[in-house]
Amino acid sequence: MTASMADKRRDQLEQYLQKVTMDANMLRSDVFIDFLKLVQLDTFSITTKTAALDIFLPDGRNIQIEILTSDTAERVLEVVSHKIGLCQELLGYFGLFLIRFRKEGKLSVMKKLADFELPYVSLRSAGMENCKVGLRKWYMDPSLDSMLMDCTAAVDLIHMQALQDIEQEWAKPTQAQRQKLEALQKEDNQTKFLELSQEVRHYGYLQLDPCTCDYPEPGCGAVLSVGNDEISCCITLPDNQTQEIIFQMSRVKCWKVTFLGTLLDVDGPQRTLNQNLELRFQYSEDSHWQWFVIYTKQAFLLSSCLKKMISEKTVKLAAENPEMKDSSRFPPRKSKIEIAKADCVFGTIKEEDL
Fold it and tell me: What DSSP letter does each residue of 59-82 carry, written as one string?
């Protein structure tokens, strides 16, 4: 096999793995989920056992829970929600993330843990210091805050995250807004605080670490904020001037993530091998389709955010169009017993066969 053939096959495999793990029907298959769990445990030589896991909240506190090392993120989220009193029907609005805490209180959201991922294994295999599993809201449309206001625990969580995002300078209030928010915080008025936060620039957005892009020319530095149906890019030009560009999701046709190799990341005395990734998306500009490339180790997180924004838009359109709503439904996930009855082939698969 030539080098070009190997590269092509590697690219095809990457695309396949990305697509299959985003297929809603596949993720409802118990056989597929069990296979993915087994792969994660075997890859890092971790056996199934009871373990303690700290889940960090946006206000800096942590909740310690007892889990199995083979528990999925979906299961861990259920355990955490029960412990903090979060309504079960609101679980879809929250998620578990790998978060890296850096110097001077700065943090980086490294990735969103998919439902089938094992948080214990992901944390052990992260290969980074000061990396923790954190609980954050998981929706990109800030107006969805309104869906959570009847649950005290949910309001507490999104209020904590709003404070954290302002502290991290991900959300950017004006001076007047900041003064009003500080006054509401002193009054302990969470509802009014969150209502005013809706008016704050980039509220509810997720900001990525500084990266590079190929626009308007290769090698330009960029800081991306993603949310509210857009990608906001603050680009540093070669002459050190900055330019802000907004990419509307309604004009994004497609995107893909590509693995480019590994890079040695030096952060003081710490040296870490990081994946060198790129995300490129096709965008309609002046009636022409053009590819934009972003080089970031958070490419998979960015991809998850783009997919989430499209999903939320689809749900909103479905709510407005009953016919579309019916066609967008997926069948409920079957239990293992139902699968065995429905298909005798699945019923005969054993763990060693996987």
Answer: TS-EEEEEEETT--HHHHHHHHHH
Amino acid, single-letter form, for residue 43: T
CATH number of domain containing 212: 2.30.29.30
> Cα Rg for the chain, rounded, in angstroms?
21
- The arrangement of strands across the sheet holding 50-56 comes to 62-68, 50-56, 131-137, 94-101, 107-112
Opening angle at CA 50, ends 48 and 55, nearest 5:
110
Residues 233 and 160 in one domain: no
* Of the candidates 98, 162, 157, 164, the residue with the CA atom closest to the CA atom of residue 130: 98
pLDDT digits (tens, 9 = 90+) for 40-85: 999 899 999 999 999 999 999 999 999 999 999 999 999 999 999 9
* Cα(101)–Cα(132) distance, integer angstroms: 8
| Length of the chain measured in residues | 354
CA dist 140 and 132 (Å) reads 22
Task: Note whether residue 94 is domain-resident.
Answer: yes
Task: Give the Å distances, CA to CA, from 324 to 203, 314, 316.
Answer: 30, 9, 10
Identify whether residues 286 and 240 lie together within a single domain.
Answer: yes
Q: What are phi and psi of 328, to 5 degrees?
A: -90, 0
> Distance (Å, rounded) from C-alpha 204 to C-alpha 136?
11
